[in-house]
Amino acid sequence: MDSPDLKRQKTVSVIGGGVAALMLASHIDTQKYSVTIYEQKKTVGRKFLVAGEGGLNLTYHAPLNHIISQYEPASFMESCLNAFTHDDLRNWLTSIGIETFVGSSHRVFPVGGVKPITVLNTIVDHITQKGVQILHHKRWVGWTKSGDLQFESGDCVKSDITVLALGGASWKVTGSNGTWSNILSQQGIQVNPFQAANCAFGVKWDTIFATTYAGKPLKNIALSLGQKITKGELVITESGLEGNAIYAHSHSIQQELREGNHVTMYLDLKPMMTEEQLYTKYITSHRSKPTDILKHDLNIDKTAIAILKQMTDKALFGDIRILAKTLKALPIIITKAGAIDQAISTLGGIDLDEVNHHYQLKGINNCYAIGEMLDWYAPTGGYLIQGCFSMGYRLANYLNES
Ligand SMILES: Cc1cc2nc3c(=O)[nH]c(=O)nc-3n(C[C@H](O)[C@H](O)[C@H](O)COP(=O)(O)OP(=O)(O)OC[C@H]3O[C@@H](n4cnc5c(N)ncnc54)[C@H](O)[C@@H]3O)c2cc1C
Known about the structure:
The structure is a single chain. The chain is of the alpha+beta class. It folds into two domains: 9-196 and 345-401, FAD/NAD(P)-binding domain (3-Layer(bba) Sandwich); 201-337, no CATH class. It is built from 15 helices and 20 strands. The strands form five sheets. It has a seven-stranded antiparallel β-sheet with strand order 17-16-13-14-15-12-18. Strands 6-2-1-10-20 form a five-stranded parallel β-sheet, with no helix packed on it. The chain is elongated, with a radius of gyration of 24 Å.
């Protein structure tokens, strides 16, 4: 009989070296498991670096129940977000040498001067010092007949436990290309079609408006769809709108578009004022030209006035009651979603019914899936990275205790 000391370590193969995988590797017990990350690109964490290009928004600072409520379905995400909260993430980063701060928008970033590549390298150093092996240029292509992991290079690997962390299907250049969906579908796993999320959406502008205003922001606006209202910023694009105020509606917009509907959203150009206040301010102005009143008395900027004119007709300025109402709820018709590859994240992926509450795939022995490859949604604001980190942590903890 083997003495406990001579017992063979179980092997854990983590396929994909993105956010979820790195967190799992950071927390898994390397005394208990021999852990290898197989990444198809020449480096890990490429999407993490892309995410950092506009400022690396690592998580969001708010009460935990507010954070959980931003996810779809929140009931699926709450266990991992409770197990590894936004505060836990910040404390853990501090423990490996990365300090963070909360920005004015409640978003959490590394402190000034710390670049995304430094954060990534610090995490990778931490993992490798623990004894996790990282292999690059290892593109996983499926399983052999005997159940070994198969790589494009021809190698086959026997693994006690497999963790799939292959990401979503946007920004293919980072390696997150979604081609794994065929492999899993062939195994009988339900993989829902990928759709762009946190992406631009199409609106039919006239050509002159589109060319004049593309790239211009609409700041401090609110945007509603059904009961949900988001505040923030929009940017006009040649073919529609983008920005955090619309990204946060992507899940519902895509649902409506899937059902074949055009989606009508309502844009509030002055969320800080009521319809009555706008009306009163307008009719008490000493100016005569409507555009001057909007600009100088109501403090509505040029781009907002242009979009108002673009979406309505001149008759609107003849009825100030209707004008005030429209400033609070300008209808915007969304016609389509932007390209998947340019989206910040994707909807679709492994149907949540295919995994148990430890992310174990029901149809494949000892195989787990974490991160964006599962079909959940979060808006921008650090929620995506937090969700992936929390899943990685929770699975590591579960394996450590198994
Ligand atoms: C432009 C942009 C900006 C973003 N900004 C933010 C932000 O500010 N805050 C935020 O929270 N989130 C942001 N995100 C989203 C966030 O980066 C992702 O949600 C997150 O990286 C997903 O993590 P993941 O671990 O699921 O997969 P990924 O990080 O995508 O990693 C998956 C890995 O698997 C590898 N892989 C895929 N297939 C194979 C295979 N067959 N064999 C081997 N390896 C494979 C890939 O090469 C990749 O390295 C942004 C994304 C983009 C594109």
